[in-house]
Design a protein that fits this description.
The structure is a single chain. By secondary structure, the chain is an alpha/beta fold. It is built from nine helices and twelve strands. The strands form three sheets. Strands 5-6-7-4-8-11-3-12 form an eight-stranded mixed sheet, with helices on both faces. The chain has a two-stranded antiparallel sheet with strand order 1-2. It has a two-stranded antiparallel sheet with strand order 9-10. A hairpin with a 2-residue loop joins strand 5 and strand 6. The chain is globular. The mean pLDDT is about 85.
Amino acid sequence: TVILETLATECERAKKLPFKDWAFQFLKIRTVKGKIVPLALNIVQQAIDDEWEFQLKDRGYVAIQVLKARKMGVSTYVQGKMYRAVLENEGWHASIMAHEDGSCRLIFERTQKFAELLPDAMKRTKVRNNAKEIAYAPPHDSWLKVNVAKAMGGFGRGGDYHMNHFSETSKWPEIRGQIIAEGQAAAIINSMPEGVFGTAVLDESTANGKDNQFYRDWQASQPHQGSRYGKNGVRAMFFPWFVFPSYRLVGKRPAEYWAGNKDEWAQQEPMLRKMGCDDEQLAWERLRRKQREQ
C-alpha cells in the first residue's frame, strides 16, 4: 500500500512539471547514432512549446502552423506533447495524419518508443498497441491513432479528437487542387470538442511551392489586423535551417565548397546574408546541397 501511494504521489508530481522538464525526465528518443537519450528540447521545439503554452493561457486552445526546414524535431515534439496528454487525461483522443505510409510509421514509432521506455510507475494498461494505435484500457480510455492522407476515408468520424497533428501537409496528394484527404482532415477538425481546455491542432510542413493547401493556409495564418493570429485563427511560425546553432562549419568559407547552380546561388547568397547568415553557415549550406545532389 505504501509503495502504491508513493507511485501515485510521483505521478501527480510529474503532472505539474513544465513539458520541457517532463520530457527530459520521462521521454526517451533514439539518436541517429542509435543511442537512447532523454528528450531535451532543442531551440525550435522550445519555441513551439512557448507558443503552445502562451495560447493555452491566452484562449484555452492551440492552433499553430509551422513552416520549417527538414529534421528540426517538430514531429518528435508534437508526439511527445500529445502522448503526455493521452497518458495523463482520461478519455483524451489524439490523431496524426502524414502524407505517406513511411512517414506515418516513423512518426508513430517515436510514440511507441515513448510508451516502451516510460518508467514502469507511469505505464498504463493497454487494450490496443499496434502499428496505427495505442489505446489505454477503461476507465482511462484514452488513445492516439495515426493515418495516411491518401483517401477520403472515415478517419476522424465517430468520435472526439482533442489533439491533432498534420504532418507534411504541403505534400498531401491532391487532385485538381483539392486534397484527397480533405474530408478526413475536415472531419477531424469538426470533431474537436468546443470549450474543452487544452485542445490543439498543429499543422507542420517543409515548403513545396505555392500550388498546395498548406501554402494557401499559410497565407491565411499571417498576422491579421494587429492580431498575432491569422484570419483563420492560426498562429504561423517559420523556422529556416539557419536557426540551428550547429548548422555551420567552423572556420570554413562558402567558396571552399560546391555551390551547384551558380546563378541560383548568386541570387540566394545576398538574401541569406541579409537574414543574418555568416560564412560558416553558408559553407554548411553549400556542403549540404552538394551532399543532397549526390
